[in-house]
Amino acid sequence: MSQIKMIIMDVDGTMVNSDKVITPKTKEALLKAQASGVRLVIASGRPTSGIRKFADELDLAENHGLLVSYNGSKVYDCTSKEVIYNQAIKVNQAKRVLEHMKKFNVYPMVDRHGYMNVLDAYAPQIHMNVGDDRMIDIMKYEIRGGNFLICEHRDLAEYVDFEPNKILTAGEPEYLEKVFEEMQAPFKDELNCMFTAPFFFEFTPKGVDKAKALRSICELTNIDESEVIAFGDANNDLTMIEAAGIGVAMSNASPLVLEAADYITLSNDEDGIAHALAKFM
After folding, report:
1. What is the CATH number of the domain that holds 120?
2. Other beta carbons within 10 Å of 161
3. I need a labelling partner for 167 at 20 to 30 A (CA). Which of 36, 194, 208, 231 fits?
4. Contact by Cβ (8 Å): 277, 40
5. Do residues 126 and 140 share a domain?
6. Of 155, 184, 205, which residue is a domain's last?
7. CA 234/CA 15 separation, integer angstroms
């Protein structure tokens, strides 16, 4: 087995627990690995602003850590404070997606310059999953999680005159399962279209994913993919799990991720990352 030189990990459902915090045991394990020279990379579907607080907590700026945001669309160097990779959706594509979303009972969101741009800042709460009675205030969840201010627009398709890194849509999980194929149909050959949570379906540039971001980081750092351990739980983590030398699924992961993983660790509420690092490092 190759020596592990890099740890790349998803955030929600992986690095943080259900309360959205890094537990002391997981933090200790990551800081210990970093102190031994292992490079830490946080890779999330969240915007960069939504994961910077975790970078601060793990001292990434002092240790050449990296942030992969928007499911691989952007890579940020915490030490140099430079964007080292960025691939966005073209303006005409974004306008077409947002126009098409008007046909569906979903809540589209596009961020820019610290604002999350939406149609309805007071969108009703939605269920967290099919058959789950728990409800979530989707606007508060995304705005607070991404550290955004919120801005309403009457027409997002008309508003967008820039290249966004992603277009996020939220909706009832049961409804999204029924309509997602129709939502993605006009764009599936030119954009990545995927679930990132039962209540989130999003669009990102074609060919962009966490594995592509990982490959660009490995080239930059002269670290081979075989020397990387990756942690994830959702389908947007799948390519990263497959690309890394050791792909680790949290026990709460989706069936596809569980099947693809080299190892299944404990859940994100049971310090799964710390458990796996104790085994492999």
Report:
1. 3.30.1240.10
2. 8
3. 231
4. no
5. yes
6. 205
7. 12
Coil vs helix vs strand at 41? strand
pTM above 0.85, yes or no: yes
For residues 252 and 245, what is the distance between their CA atoms, to the nearest angstrom?
A: 21
Residue 1 forms part of a structural domain: no
Select from 179, 205, 231 the last residue of a domain: 205
What is the Cβ-side half-sphere exposure of residue 203, based on CA atoms within 13 angstroms?
Answer: 29
Give the pLDDT band of residue 162 (cuts 50, 70, 90).
Answer: very high
- For β-strands 107-112 and 167-170, DSSP reports them as antiparallel
111 pairs with which residues across the strands? 116
> Tell me, what CATH number does 17's domain have?
3.40.50.1000
Q: How many helices (H) and strands (E) does the chain have?
A: 10, 16
Count up the domains in the chain and report the number: 2
- Of 87, 68, 109, 84, residue with least CA distance to 202: 109
Structure tokens at 152: 């309403």
Alpha-carbon distance 68 to 1, whole Å? 26
Q: Return d(Cα 263, Cα 4) in angstroms, integer.
A: 15
Residues 106 and 198 in one domain: yes
Per residue in 171-214, pLDDT (tens digit) is: 999 999 999 999 999 999 999 998 988 999 999 999 999 999 99
Q: Are 210 and 43 in contact (CB under 8 A)?
A: yes
106: domain range?
91-205
Going by the DSSP 8-state scheme, the letter that residue 52 receives in this structure is: H
d(CA 197, CA 215) in angstroms, rounded, equals 25
Give the angle 204-209-212 at the CA atoms, nearest 5°.
135
Decide: 279 and 261 in contact? Cβ < 8 Å: no
